[in-house]
Amino acid sequence: MLKLRGLSKYFARGTVNEVRALNRLDLNVESGEFISVIGSNGAGKSTLLACIAGAAIPEEGRVVLDGMDMTAWPEYRRARHIGRVFQDPLSGTCASMTIEENMALALRRGKRRTLRSGITRGERARFKEVLARLDLGLEKRLGDPAGFLSGGQRQSLTLLMATLVRPTLLLLDEHTAALDPRTAGLVMKLTCDIIEEDKLTAIMITHNMQQALAYGQRLIMMHRGAIILNFSAEEKSRLTVQDLIHHFHAANPAVPGAVSDRLVLSWHRGRPRPDDPWPAGSVTSGPLQSTPVWFEPVQSQSSPSPVQVQSQSSPSPVQVQSKSSPSPVPAPPLPCPSPPAQPVFFFFIPASRAIRIPLTSAVGRPSCPADFDGSLTCP
């Protein structure tokens, strides 16, 4: 049915901002199969659908649908065989056209245009019959502009339009993400009913783990432009949300030296936990090295709270260690008052340069510049 072979897609290729959205991706989809696709933001899910639909052309690989190699086909030519529903309910319909005019355009997708009546009586009767399935009363509002409909109504209309002419492949790009839970449930039920009744082949992208487990015969997980997990219908039936999270981390071990989520979350208290080592990549190599330094308010009973400076190499908050100076330089307390409970800001300070940083401007206090060449002053 659908065969993807070695699909690769780049954005801003050859520049410093180059991103490889798809990394030699291979995928087989059988006729009548309903596949759910999950993955983190930036995993390449929407780019995958864009390359299938023709909205993006891959630099490498092939897209073969029902025996037709459509890798180089433009989007309008593929529209005869592929139906697509977008995440934004406003993207699938024309707001200034009436409901029946939108459906008439969908009915003629991929066909030659002729000089004849735009909407015949038979077509209007068919539109009413199809819209009645929604149970939203839209069959009585054929003359209303689509812009008058709610987001859920427009998304339901888009789904009907995408399947009005039976597509070879239906692509669903997070089509319930912008809807409230109740409307999303109605649209998902309608989606399943249409796919089952018309025996459609469909690929659905979702960030909802429950939806991914409840719908579709197969579940795949993407990461960094590649498919890292592929569960059959039998394997999928035994999975839970926690299982998916576990499988994701098992397939993506932490890169040595990378900052862990636990380490990032622990920084809000001003310092890492004792069992969280500093990442190896936090200190740059070469002539200019960086020393991790952070600021935190320290309460005092006898005087207003002084702002003190700490460094990773010294556990006590009384000195700043500079690479250029062999001995620690005492840091006198600053007379600027510190607010009682403020977020802690983490910095990487080049040890061979003097940098002035406003310590308290972020919380509405007078700015206290600090020179990291051995002297700290606050006018």
Strand segment count = 15
Shape: globular
Radius of gyration: 29 Å
Q: Give the DSSP E fraction (strand runs of 2 or more residues).
A: 15-25%
* Mean of pLDDT: 75
Order of adjacent strands in the largest pleated sheet: 6-7-8-3-9-10
Specify the CATH architecture of the largest domain.
3-Layer(aba) Sandwich
Order of helices and strands: EEEHEEHEHHHEHEHEEHHHEEEEE
Specify the CATH homologous superfamily of the largest domain: P-loop containing nucleotide triphosphate hydrolases
Separation, N- and C-terminal Cα atoms: 74 Å
Helix content: 10-25%
The number of helical runs is: 10
Structural class: alpha/beta
Biggest beta sheet summary: 6 strands, mixed
Keywords:
379 residues; 6-stranded mixed β-sheet; 10 helices; 22% strand
Account of the protein in words:
The structure is a single chain. This protein has 379 residues and is of the alpha/beta class. The chain has helices spanning 45-53, 75-78, 99-107, 121-131, 151-164, 181-198, 209-214, 233-237, 241-251, 261-266, and strands at residues 2-11, 19-29, 34-39, 60-65, 68-69, 82-85, 169-173, 202-205, 218-223, 226-231, 290-297, 307-311, 319-320, 329-330, 345-350. The model is unreliable at 255-314, 316-325 and 333-379 (pLDDT under 50).
